[in-house]
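Inverse folding, one chain.
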């Protein structure tokens, strides 16, 4: 085994986790390291770390993140190194930077590094996971009518390729009356003896509805008590609009897999994401793209099997990536940790409640996102009487307010207050929406 291979083997196994934690902590004191400015002082100072145009009110920042200063600086540092000496810089940094990313992600999620596979986006993670799940002949995948194109298409492609059975259910009758109990009960009734996989989306980008994932997981666990391991229901969650918003530890969430891009609410480098899996759930996943893990590669060169490596290693696609972006991802997790997960959640909730309450008081506006934060997160969807959603977004843009239209058959105006916004900006937005009237 090569020196690089030996380092990779030590870093990427659970046996080296405690050593990696100590190494990461001590490395920040080394003179040749450039510490990132993670200290949080106030929301105005935080906003200043983003190169966002000050002329605009950014209420679509969830779509594709602007890089905050620590992330941007790390990207440029790695890019400069790769441009100056591509093979030398890659050889020196590839394994240790990926290890730092995995460690930062694990500390943020409350998991082990061996439970995480790195991807380039939510869509890539969904495609890799749903395309490779092991299913028996009579087993089905259960999903919902509320999911995003990426989930629905990943499952359709799987069905076309393998003949897998995919079934959809409604989780609620109406957004006006939806409740946590209704959602959980609809899921419970939808699961049959053939159901092996449940695939849902935590926060719906179509309406802003947030599913009660923990309660849904508990209902599935109750069903699983009467099943053997080969028939246990595996709970998969697209968490892209919850990661970086909700305050949770993934091991306590109750799902088996969490898939998310990290270039939205997490403010990570564009083109980054992850798949987290429970250790007992990972064996159901089959990789479809070869990994470039050094230990897997070294074993291949020695004509040895790599089956003993964590499945997350195999599920991290190989090939050459935009390394300067992937290696800067740890800065995004550290950025959030410095603020504090609970503080992040509280801030986003406060701004969203301000927006929703203001909209609900307007007779010409229909608010589609539930008012309760138990059923919503950071996305707010609405309609303005007599105006098409695209027209509303265009009119707001003319007033320097950036929103979006939901990319679904049923279209709404979509606004998403985040950490880059202020209460004053929300008030300005409400005033402009109040003034919108049909001609």
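Residues assigned per position:
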């Amino acid at each position: 085994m090569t020196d690089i291979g030996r380092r990779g083997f030590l870093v990427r196994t659970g046996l080296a986790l405690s050593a990696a934690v100590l190494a990461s902590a001590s490395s920040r004191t080394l003179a040749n390291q450039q510490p990132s400015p993670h200290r949080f002082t106030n929301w105005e100072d935080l906003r200043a770390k983003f190169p966002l145009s000050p002329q605009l009110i950014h209420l679509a920042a969830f779509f594709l993140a602007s890089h905050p200063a620590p992330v941007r600086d790390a990207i440029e540092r790695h890019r400069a190194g790769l441009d100056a000496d591509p093979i030398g810089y890659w050889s020196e940094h590839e394994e240790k930077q990926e290890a730092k990313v995995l460690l930062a992600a694990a500390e943020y999620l409350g998991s082990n590094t061996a439970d995480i596979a790195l991807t380039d986006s939510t869509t890539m993670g969904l495609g890799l996971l749903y395309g490779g799940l092991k299913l028996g002949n009579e087993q089905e995948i259960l999903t919902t009518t509320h999911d995003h194109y990426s989930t629905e298409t990943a499952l359709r492609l799987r069905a076309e390729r393998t003949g897998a059975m995919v079934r959809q259910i409604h989780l609620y009758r109406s957004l006006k009356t939806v409740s946590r109990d209704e959602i959980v009960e609809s899921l419970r009734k939808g699961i049959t003896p053939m159901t092996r996989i449940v695939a849902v989306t935590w926060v719906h980008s179509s309406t802003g509805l947030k599913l009660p994932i923990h309660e849904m997981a508990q209902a599935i666990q109750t069903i699983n008590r009467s099943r053997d391991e080969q028939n246990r229901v595996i709970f998969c969650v697209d968490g892209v609009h919850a990661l970086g918003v909700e305050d949770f530890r993934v091991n306590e969430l109750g799902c088996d897999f969490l898939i998310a891009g990290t270039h939205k609410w997490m403010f990570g480098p564009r083109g980054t994401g992850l798949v987290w899996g429970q250790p007992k759930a990972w064996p159901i996943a089959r990789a479809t793209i070869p990994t470039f893990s050094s230990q897997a590669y070294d074993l291949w060169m020695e004509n040895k099997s790599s089956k003993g490596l964590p499945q997350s290693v195999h599920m991290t696609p190989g090939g050459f990536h935009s390394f300067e972006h992937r290696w800067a991802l740890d800065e995004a997790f550290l950025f959030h940790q410095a603020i504090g997960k609970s503080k992040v959640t509280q801030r986003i909730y406060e701004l969203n409640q301000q927006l929703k309450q203001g909209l609900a008081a307007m007779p010409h506006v229909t608010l589609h996102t539930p008012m309760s934060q138990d059923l919503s997160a950071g996305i707010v969807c609405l309609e303005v009487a007599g105006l098409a959603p695209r027209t509303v977004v265009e009119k707001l843009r003319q007033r320097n307010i950036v929103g979006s239209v939901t990319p679904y058959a049923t279209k709404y105006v979509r606004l998403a207050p985040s950490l880059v916004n202020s209460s004053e900006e929300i008030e300005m937005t409400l005033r402009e929406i109040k003034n919108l009237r049909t001609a």
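The first helix runs from residue 3 to 11. The chain has 17 helices and 13 strands.
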